[in-house]
Write a structure and sequence with these properties.
5-stranded parallel beta sheet; elongated; alpha/beta; 12% strand; Rossmann fold; two-stranded antiparallel ribbon
Length: 242
């Protein structure tokens, strides 16, 4: 297997496991903290599916029945859209039965009865469904489980050690930085990521700016705080600098 590069470094086994599960027609919830790399994996799965000619739809946020319909329309763009929404979903259902594909749902929120009913309606068709959910504390996990959407749960854990070091180094190598990252700086930056690839990407992006440096060294706490704020804004969550 060719080693992944960039944000997929260290996630090769996770990607292979998810790929096998969804292509087998399972419903899966991928969960983990904000910034751990769930969205990157969803996009990697979508690329794999399209390269293989497998119908695939991906939506950025997940809550309403319209999100389900949108994902199906992305996966089966040749289905006629005229008529009522019920008629459209009926034609999409027939397209699924003819050629099962994958639906990938990012940022799983509180779903209504209609959405859950739609997911149940495609079980047994061979359609693979993957939800990505932010779980930063136990109550988040309880909320996701209460939705009753998944047969399989996969926890995406933070990266540590050599995997995170290699990921951060590859990200830094791809950018023209405003300073020189020494081995000591790299160790401090790796520790400040808390194993979150999304934070490593934020660090690398910020270090191209001279404002991210002081006295020839990266401003570690400034970078860390900025990454937490950006993650909170991106996912509409309260900021907790812990």
């Amino acid at each position: 297997m060719t080693q992944a590069v960039g944000p997929l470094l260290g996630r090769e086994q996770d990607l292979a496991k998810l790929d096998a599960l969804v292509r087998a027609g399972n419903v899966v919830v991928l969960y983990g903290p904000v910034g751990v790399g769930k969205t990157v994996l969803l996009h990697a799965l979508a690329r794999r599916a399209r390269q293989r000619g497998i119908p695939c739809g991906l939506v950025r946020r997940t809550a309403a029945l319209s999100d389900f319909t949108q994902a199906l329309m992305h996966a089966y763009p040749r289905v006629a859209t005229e008529g009522t929404q019920r008629q459209l979903r009926g034609r999409l259902r027939m397209a699924v039965e003819r050629r099962p594909g994958l639906l990938l749902f990012d940022d799983l929120g509180r779903t209504g009865t209609a959405f859950k009913g739609a997911i149940r309606s495609v079980r047994g068709t061979g359609l693979g469904v993957l939800f990505a959910a932010d779980v930063d504390e136990p109550r988040d996990h309880d909320r996701i489980r209460a939705l009753g959407l998944s047969f399989h749960e996969i926890e995406l854990r933070p990266l540590h050690g050599n995997s995170m070091r290699a990921l951060l180094q590859s990200l830094l190598d791809d950018r023209v930085l405003a300073g020189t990252v020494t081995p000591e700086h790299l160790r401090a930056l790796v520790a400040a990521t808390n194993g979150l690839p999304g934070r490593a990407v934020d660090f690398a992006d910020a270090l191209v700016d001279a404002a991210a440096w002081r006295g020839g060294a990266p401003r570690i706490e400034w970078l860390r705080t900025g990454a937490v704020i950006r993650a909170a804004e991106r996912y509409r969550q309260p900021v907790e600098l812990v």
